[in-house]
Amino acid sequence: MDILYSADQCGAGKTTWALDRMAGEPGRYVFVVDKMAMVKTRRAELLERAERLGLTLHIEVIISDDDLKGDWSVGRRIQEAGADLSGNQHVVVIVTHAGMTRCRDWRGYALWDAIIVDEVPSVLEREDHAGGRFNARALSGFYGLAPTDVPGISTVTLIDDLTLNEVPEDWRAFHRRIARGETLCNISAWSDLTDVASWFSWRMWNVREALDGVFGEIVFLADAFDQSETFHLMSLDRQVHFKRFRVASPRAWAPRPVTIRYVSEERRAASSRFKSEDHAADMAKVWDWLALETDPFHLWTANAGVTVTAEIAGKRVTPKQAGSNEWMAWHKASAVYAAKPSPNERRFYAILGIEADVIVASREAYDLNQFFMRTSLRDPTSTAPVELRCFDRTQAETFAAKLAEGYGLDAELVLDDIALDLSEVRKGGRPPKNGRTRQTPEERRTADAARKKRQRQAKKKAA
Questions:
Q1: What CA–CA distance (Å, rounded) separates 369 from 374?
Q2: pTM for this predicted structure
Q3: Is 5 exposed, middle or buried (0-12, 13-18, 19+ CB in 10 A)?
Q4: Tens digit of pLDDT for each residue in 258-310?
Q5: Burial of 120 (0-12, 13-18, 19+ CB in 10 A)
Q6: Highest mean pLDDT (candidates 57-66, 108-117, 134-143)
Q7: In whole angstroms, how far apart are CA 30 and each of 22, 216, 433?
Q8: How many Cβ atoms from other residues are within 10 Å of residue 380's Cβ?
Q9: Which of 174, 201, 190 has the alpha carbon at shortest distance from 137?
């Protein structure tokens, strides 16, 4: 199975390419957008293009008011629309990422020209559960466990005609996954739960089983798509082959000053730290640091559930941002954000054969890249100074490398010393990672010079 993808940089025109193709080349398409808020905008853009070209385009929007809460009826409506609309010579069906993964049968779209997926969809639903004897007995009465080819991994099956209303609220998401598609878990027998504190279940959308042989082309469009968690998960299937293409020739970005400020040299950002009462004093300093920014056109984000103790100027948005030009004229952005895998997630990805470092890079680094690129950095012609803030140096260096490699921009990294108490280690005394000791200021300056040299070399190579 072949999948085409464009991982061109933000602002390269990936969505424009998709809109121009679907509106200007009569055919039958499915267009998958990342969220319902984009549906109205994309519909209007398609109709405007088609009208300008004198073409009659039929657009069918299939979304759900409960799209993010598990409304599976949208999947059935998407499924039925394929056969109903196949007689149209020029049609676009617009659905969301969530709707795409909930449609269980795409055969009604056989011989349609293409399904084009804008931005990176989530293909994994995973949940942690408590162990214990009570849960072992309760679950065994309603669900079965069928062995798989992987030792210790089972498929969860429904062995009782149980309705959703009969399921306790805490278990409804689990029940939905079992009822609607294949759900796996890391338990061989329910009796094993008496000896474990926790376990996990998951359902992964299989792109090959869903779409292979249906559409003429399967296309994904997203900046750095091949660095995303979804790309790594899809690549686990050896029968899926990715082929990269460019929607346009690489664009040159105008030189501009970019400053990335951070507050931690060594200790990495962690959502548990951001939320912990033990680190509340440190986090109060972090929020006061962000509050120094008084520009009303300041875009900022933080992990859900953190307690913000200062008044931060500007607009707060959720960390996961993609595809929007709404803040393209804004030059300042801050992120107090981390998305590292939990111990249970590390166990889960180890089962799949994916290293935890890969997930950190494809999750946290990807999210920060998408967030910071909502600013004027996505405008190739802008020369205005940009100032960004993040928690740790690794985050700053990672995004600086992205700017150098993808856009030819050199960023200045600045440590703002706000007197955080970052000296503690975990209980039991863990040595520094890889045996490293803290760098001296002179060593750090030397490292900075070497990094900037690499960035200049990457810039020349890209040119």
A1: 9
A2: 0.78
A3: buried
A4: 999 999 988 888 888 899 898 999 999 999 999 999 999 999 999 999 999 99
A5: buried
A6: 108-117
A7: 9, 11, 47
A8: 14
A9: 190
Q: What is the dihedral of CA 147, 153, 159, 161, to 10 degrees?
A: -150
For residue 277, count CB atoms less than 10 angstroms from its CB and return exposed for 0-12, middle for 13-18, buried for 19 or more. exposed
pLDDT of amino acid 437 = 45
389: which 2 tokens? Answer: 């803030």
Rounded to whole angstroms, the Cα distance separating 460 from 463 reads 5
Contact 257, 413 (CB under 8 A): no
Cα–Cα separations (whole angstroms), residue 366 to 6, 119, 225, 328: 16, 12, 9, 19
3-class secondary structure, 127: strand
Among 138, 149, 148, 150, smallest CA distance to 190 is for 138
% the chain with pLDDT above 90 = 60
What residue spans of 292-440 are helical by DSSP H? Answer: 343-352, 356-360, 366-372, 393-407
Q: How confident is the model at residue 428 (pLDDT cuts 50, 70, 90)?
A: very low
Q: 351 pLDDT band (50/70/90 cuts)? A: confident
Is pLDDT at 86 greater than 50 in this prediction?
Answer: yes
Phi, psi of 126 (to 5 degrees): -130, 145
Evaluate the CA torsion angle 159, 188, 131, 269 in order and state its sign. negative
Tokens of 367: 């999210």
H or E segment at 77?
A: helix 73-85
Structure tokens at 455: 């960035």
- CA distances (Å), origin 223, targets 92, 208, 318, 321, 386: 23, 22, 18, 12, 20
Strands 154-158 and 183-185, by their bridges, are antiparallel
Task: Report how far residue 106's alpha carbon sits from residue 209's, in angstroms, rounded to the nearest whole number.
Answer: 10
Determine which helix (DSSP H) or strand (DSSP E) holds 245, and give its type and residue range.
none
How many residues does this entry show for the chain?
Answer: 463
pLDDT-based confidence at 449, cuts 50/70/90?
low
- Residue 337 CB burial class (10 angstroms; 0-12, 13-18, ≥19): buried
Average confidence (pLDDT) over 209-231: 94
Q: What angle do CA 388, 397, 233 make, to 5 degrees?
A: 100
Q: Three-state DSSP class for 310?
A: coil
Phi first, then psi: what are they for 129, rounded to 5°?
Answer: -135, 155
